[in-house]
Every structure is written in structure tokens, then in C-alpha cells.
Amino acid sequence: MTRLAQLRRGSERRVALVDEPRLRLLGTFDSTYALAQAAIVGGKSLTDIVHEHASDETLDYDEVYEGRSAWRLMVPFDHPEEPARCLVTGTGLTHLGSARDRQAMHGDESQLTDSMRMFRWGLERGRPADGVVGVAPEWFYKGCGTTLRAHGEPLEVPPYAEDGGEEAEIAGIYVVAPDGTPWRVGMCTGNEFSDHVFEKRNYLNLAGSKLRTCALGPELVVGPTFDSVRGEVAIERGGTDVWSRTILTGEAEMSHSLSNIEHHHFKFAAHRRPGDAHVHYFGACALSFGDGLRLVDGDVMRVAFDGFGRALRNPLRVDAASHAPVAVGSLA
């Protein structure tokens, strides 16, 4: 299994092959996006291209991961030239745990909410036979590439937000070929991060609750196993875990197949623009918010999945500025 990282030192950026405990730098390519496009155009596997261009130049992974190197980890995938051409989206209600948490937010056990109905539709029709279109899952928009944060970078609670909480997930990484065909580059550990207090007030707040920063990385895994993937999510406060859960994701743990999720994302022609990049979160199965934990400034969210490399760690930062109206100018 090939694992890649993107690094930056000042204005210089590089791609590295993870070769524990070292990072082996690649020549020629300075982004995983460029590697993926080269694989498409050249008709080669991404793994073959990576190994063809792996150099003898290496870095100590511990130093980079812990922030003790001049090199800094970037998100493992981005659109290097136009961040606005990287669409960040997600699919919700794909795991029983998330459906239960949403049911608790918006109803009681005696009332079947729309959230639980959608989850059940997925169980019934989210795994269609080959050549058959299944039921559409919940879909949401996070933002463009500027909303992505790397390992170690803070996830922000803006002045207008009511909360900020982790959503430990795996995200699919995609590029669109010159002929409009979407290609899966790989998958990454992710923290989809949302405002659950705002969402809980009314289900129709879901769209706005998702417009927050989110994290990805530190590694991009090419061709991972995505059947049943074990992981761990934890909240650290003052150096001690105050909440943690063992989590499961992957197709065997979800109400929708991967192919069904991908179809319903890429069925839209606007999502198949040649050259565009896509990051799509596949859903969470456990939330600290669901267990009554409210995150505070300085908490560290930690997410790790077996086979997906090192843990993704991001501190929470609360912007304490007052929420002031945005003034819009007129060109009249």
C-alpha cells in the first residue's frame, strides 16, 4: 500500500513517499494532484509513478510530524494552483451511530425523524446491484480547498458559530480527467468538523453547520482496503484524553456502498469538470457531542484509522471576537 505526504518549506513544496520512519522525497512532482494527472494522461498506476520518481533524499518523519523540522506537513492533497477548483463535500447518515445521534438531536425514540428515515432508505437501497442506481444518500457542501487544514493546524470556531466538534471520518480523494471521467486517487484520514449546537436547533441548519474548516491527513493512501476499517477518535485536554471511542467505518459498516456514494456525487455534470479536484467525506459513526462533551479552546482532536498512517491531530481554536454584521457595498 502506497502512502504519500505533501510538505512545504517556505515557498518550496514537495511530495514524499512514507517509508517509516523516513519520508522519501520524490523528484519531478511537487503535488499529489500533479502525480494523479500524470497517471491519468500516461495510462499508468499512481503507485508505479511514485516509485519511478522516489529519490534517495529522505527526511526524519518524527521531526516533520512533531513540527521540529523546517519542513511542514500540508494537507496530503489539494489543487496546487486554484484552491477554488477543489470541491470539499460529504455524505452523512451512512453509519448507524451518526443516525442515532441525529435522531437524538431532532426527535425522541417514539418519533421517526427524517434523518432516521434516510438512514433506513440507505439500508434498504444503498447497496444496489452492478448497473443499478441506488437511493441517494444525504449530501452536503463544506467549501472549497481553502477550508482544508493540515495535521497540526487549528480548526476554528468563528465568531458566528455556536460550537465546534469533531467528526472522525475517511475521505475520498478524486481528480477529473480531461475527458470528464472522475478518478479516485486514494483516501485520507479526516476530521469533518461541524457546528452541532447550531444544527441541533433545527435540522434545516445542517447546511450552514457544515460550512466550517475541516482537516485532512497527514497521509494520502493509494488503494487502501475499505471493507471494515477500525479507528480511534479522542479529545485531549491538557495532555489527557477526556473522551475517546473505538470506531468502525468502511463499506461493511455503512448503509451505502462506495460506488453508490460516488455515483450520487459525480452524477452532476458540474462535478465532472476536467481538471477539478474533489475531497468527499464518507461519514462518522461516533461524536463526542453525542455523549454530551462540549469542546473548548485548546482541546486537541485526534483521529486515526488502521492502515491509514499516522494520527491526524488538530487543536480547537475559538475566535473570541464579537459577531458583527458584514456590510455589503453597492455598485449602483
From TrEMBL:
Alphabetical UniProt keywords: Hydrolase, Plasmid
Domain of life (superkingdom): Bacteria
Annotated InterPro entries: Fumarylacetoacetase_C_sf, GguC
GO molecular function: hydrolase activity
Protein name per its UniProtKB record: Fumarylacetoacetate (FAA) hydrolase
Source organism: Gemmatirosa kalamazoonensis
